[in-house]
Amino acid sequence: MNETLVTVVGNVATEPESQVTATGLVVTRFRLATTTRRWDAERGAWTDGATSFYTVRAWRNLGSNVKESVCLGEPLVVQGRLRIRQDEKDGRRYLAAELEAVAIGHDLARGVARFSRSGGGGGAAGAARAEVRPPAPELTAAVP
């Protein structure tokens, strides 16, 4: 009941894939990549750090709308419940980070999106489609 929600900002690393469960629920899954960036004063440039990957699962209407609205490479903001899962494969142990999404949106710091409401039932026919465009060039003004 008192679960902590986290917010992760990153880029879609795999094309979203939807499935319908045996009970008729839609679930959409994709991977989200986020890379730390730091200013390197010695080089006078930004450098990339390690990249973290999260498996994101979106259920019901959110899942349907994600499938219709999100494409590979797009910048997103995802809020959800973080689960760290320990697994073993081929004799090696590893950790997997999974987000059960509560809210997903395009990162408007890196582009422009237009929102349209989905029709009451969700699904492909009435799903929201956000169009992301590159940001407009910055305007500079000369100061006398």
TrEMBL record:
<keyword id="KW-0238">DNA-binding</keyword>
<dbReference type="InterPro" id="IPR011344">
    <property type="entry name" value="ssDNA-bd"/>
</dbReference>
<dbReference type="InterPro" id="IPR000424">
    <property type="entry name" value="Primosome_PriB/ssb"/>
</dbReference>
<protein>
    <recommendedName>
        <fullName>Single-stranded DNA-binding protein</fullName>
    </recommendedName>
</protein>
<dbReference type="InterPro" id="IPR012340">
    <property type="entry name" value="NA-bd_OB-fold"/>
</dbReference>
<dbReference type="GO" id="GO:0006260">
    <property type="term" value="P:DNA replication"/>
</dbReference>
<dbReference type="GO" id="GO:0003697">
    <property type="term" value="F:single-stranded DNA binding"/>
</dbReference>
<feature type="region of interest" description="Disordered">
    <location>
        <begin position="118"/>
        <end position="144"/>
    </location>
</feature>
<dbReference type="Pfam" id="PF00436">
    <property type="entry name" value="SSB"/>
</dbReference>
